[in-house]
Amino acid sequence: MRKGKPNDPERRTRILRAALEVIATEGVRAASYRRIAAQAGVPLGSTTYYFGDLETLIVSAFETLRDGLEPRYAAPMRSSRTDADVVEALVSATCGSTAPALADIRLYEEMHLYGARSPRVAEILRGLQKDSIMILRRSLSEATARAVDALMWGWWGYRSLHPDDPLDAVIVRNAYRALVDMAVTRMERSDRGGVSDSSPGL
């Protein structure tokens, strides 16, 4: 941070929030000091006061997602008692009441794209994925949790590319149901000796 005394202690937070808003609506390529300052409603000099370079500003903005973002299916998954409850929690997080808005999905996608070039952002993404897998592991095996996590990101990507073509909840439900049922079937077969413990699967 540069020398000097900020006039507004909340200004740094506003700048970070504005950076995410710009990235979500216009992409990382539009995230300039000037554009972010305008979005935050602060003087241009404030952005350079708090963030000595643009890379640090962008990474810091993405870091706030790790601090304040919990998977939307977290609470429903914690209260799930049956496989059906788990499936419904996943459907809701994909295309129902707890699903992210398109602006949020686009922000996540921009974060993934930037993470391919920025080791710091890639580390944030790995942390978010780890958090998601840990929550899914409350009800699913490790392999199934990873498959579900990947499938959900795929569904979100579809929503981003087809904003006028809503996902069919029945199709989404059947896909998650198939993963959960496959995991249960493998576990039952393993218990009966039909599949060895070393066999790959969900």
Which key terms come to mind for this protein?
10 helices; mainly alpha; disordered C terminus; 69% helix; Tetracycline Repressor, domain 2; 202 residues; 2 domains
Would you mind describing this structure in some detail?
By secondary structure, the chain is an all-alpha fold. It folds into 2 domains: 11-67, Arc Repressor Mutant, subunit A, CATH 1.10.10; 70-191, Tetracycline Repressor, domain 2 (Orthogonal Bundle). 69% of the residues lie in helices and 0% in strands. Helix 1 crosses helix 2 (33-40) and helix 8 packs across helix 9. It starts with 10 loop residues before the first helix and ends in an 11-residue tail after the last helix. Residues 9-69 form the HTH tetR-type domain. Keywords: DNA-binding.
